[in-house]
């Protein structure tokens, strides 16, 4: 290996360590320095894009991902991060298309099917979202979150009996009893507790920010919404490459080249 490659690899590894320690500015500097030594490396471009997304700059991330995909259009990690960056920019049609491309390359990825369902749901394509949720369910029928998501989609499709069964399945598999019990009461027409679970409030706000209060009051007959939105926060989740040049899926891979 050349000296430049060794130095670039060291910077790449340092960038991963900095990213995982949430030192995003340091990670950006390390990846940028690695690219100076080895321009155009898809793995470095993709990780630098993920870092810019973590720093709140999805527009920059998209430019980097365009470079990566121009070089390797089959790189699944680049498609994943493209979907996340587009979603951060509220470009949901394009985000859904990027997820479609990712799932063509990795059709057995449960989280991607769930994200696909969530994005389709935001676009009010409830039938499409339900199909995606079912794909996730076929891959992992014991994952409580899949049943919860399916229940919410069935609720949106005005199929309360099926939604209730889904929430019951979620509860049977260890899902959050407060959250799923709340959903179950709503679709059964039971008395809904005045104090909604905080997890539900957070998720509802993230997914339906523009119609948040209307949904709580008119759909779930919630009565204490003015008290429960003081500490809302968002969470950022990302996948990362650990190989300098070869893709290895959206998870953390152990091999360094």
Could you characterize the architecture of this molecule?
The structure is a single chain. The chain is mainly alpha-helical. Helices cover 66% and strands 0% of the residues. It has 13 helices and no strands. It has helices at 3-20, 24-37, 42-54, 58-71, 76-88, 92-105, 110-122, 126-139, 144-156, 160-172, 177-188, 198-207, 212-219. The N and C termini lie close together (10 Å). The model is unreliable at 211-238 and 245-257 (pLDDT under 50).
Per-chain topology:
Layout: H1 3-20, H2 24-37, H3 42-54, H4 58-71, H5 76-88, H6 92-105, H7 110-122, H8 126-139, H9 144-156, H10 160-172, H11 177-188, H12 198-207, H13 212-219
Keywords:
257 residues, 13 helices, elongated
Indicate the mean pLDDT: 82
- Overall outline: elongated
As a whole number of angstroms, the C-alpha radius of gyration is 21 Å
Percent helix range: 55-70%
- Which sheet architecture does the biggest sheet show? none
Structure in a nutshell:
The protein has 257 residues and is an all-alpha fold. It is 66% helix and 0% strand.
């Amino acid at each position: 290996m050349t000296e430049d490659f060794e130095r670039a690899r060291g910077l790449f590894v340092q960038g991963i360590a900095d990213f995982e320690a949430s030192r995003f500015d340091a990670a950006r500097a390390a990846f940028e320095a690695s690219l100076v030594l080895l321009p155009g490396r898809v793995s470095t471009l993709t990780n630098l894009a993920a870092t810019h997304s973590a720093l709140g700059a999805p527009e920059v991330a998209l430019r980097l991902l365009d470079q990566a995909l121009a070089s390797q259009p089959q790189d699944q990690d680049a498609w994943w991060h493209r979907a996340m960056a587009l979603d951060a920019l509220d470009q949901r049609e394009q985000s859904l298309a990027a997820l479609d491309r990712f799932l063509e390359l990795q059709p057995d990825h449960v989280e991607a099917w769930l994200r696909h369902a969530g994005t389709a749901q935001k676009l009010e394509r409830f039938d499409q979202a339900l199909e995606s949720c079912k794909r996730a369910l076929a891959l992992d029928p014991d994952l409580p979150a899949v049943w919860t998501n399916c229940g919410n989609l069935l609720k949106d499709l005005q199929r309360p009996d099926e939604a209730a069964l889904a929430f019951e399945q979620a509860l049977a598999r260890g899902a959050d009893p407060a959250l799923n019990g709340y959903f179950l009461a709503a679709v059964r027409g039971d008395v809904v507790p005045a104090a909604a679970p905080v997890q539900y409030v957070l998720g509802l706000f993230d997914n339906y920010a523009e119609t948040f209060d209307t949904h709580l009051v008119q759909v779930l007959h919630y009565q204490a919404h003015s008290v429960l939105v003081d500490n809302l926060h968002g969470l950022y989740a990302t996948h990362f490459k650990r190989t300098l040049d070869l893709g290895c899926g959206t998870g953390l891979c152990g091999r360094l080249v």
